[in-house]
Amino acid sequence: MFFVRTAMEGDVKAVRDLLVDTFEATYLPFYGAETVRKMLEGWHSLPAIKARVSKKDAEFLVADDGKRIGGTGYAAMYPKMAKTAMLHQLYVHPSCQGEGVGRDIFAELETCFPDAEIMRVEVAVENVRAISFYERLGFVEVDRMVDCGGPGSGLPAVLMEKRLEL
C-alpha cells in the first residue's frame, strides 16, 4: 500500500529513476529515444527535481510504500493566471499503474492550493491514456498547444482544466 507524502531532498534520486522509467515507457513510442532523452535531461534532471522539492507556492508529493516510490506529483500556483494551479507532473511507475496511485496523489494535490479555483494540466496529444485519466478526474479540454512543456518544444498538447471545490 502506498502512502502519499511530501517529497524530501532524499527522494530526488528515486523520483528521477521513476521519471526515467515512466517517460521511456510512455513517450518512446511517440517521440523516440532522442526526444525522450532531451526531455529527461531538461525537465527531470536531478538539479531540476531538487529545485522543485523546495519551491514556494508549490507542492511536490510522492507515493511511498516504505520500499520504493511508486508515483510522484508536482503542482504550483500558475503566475500567468490568477487563482490557478498548474499540475506540472503526475507520473506513476509502469508497474504501479492501475492501482489508484495517480488518483491518490491527485486527490492530495488538489487540496494543497486553497486560493486556487482551477487546476490546469498539459497532456501530450498522443497520450490518450493520460487524457482519459484526467477526464475521469473531472478535467475537460479547454485548448490545444504546440509547445508542451515550454517554448520551442514542438510537442503538441491538450490543455485541460478542472474546477476545484472551494
Automatic annotation (TrEMBL):
Alphabetically ordered keywords of this record: Acyltransferase, Transferase
According to its UniProt record, what is one Pfam family this protein matches?
A: Acetyltransf_7
Q: Which domain of life is it from?
A: Bacteria
Q: Where is the N-acetyltransferase domain?
A: 2-165
> What name has this protein been given in UniProt?
Ribosomal protein S18 acetylase RimI-like enzyme
Q: Which organism is it from?
A: Rhizobium halophytocola
Q: Lineage of the source organism? A: Bacteria, Pseudomonadati, Pseudomonadota, Alphaproteobacteria, Hyphomicrobiales
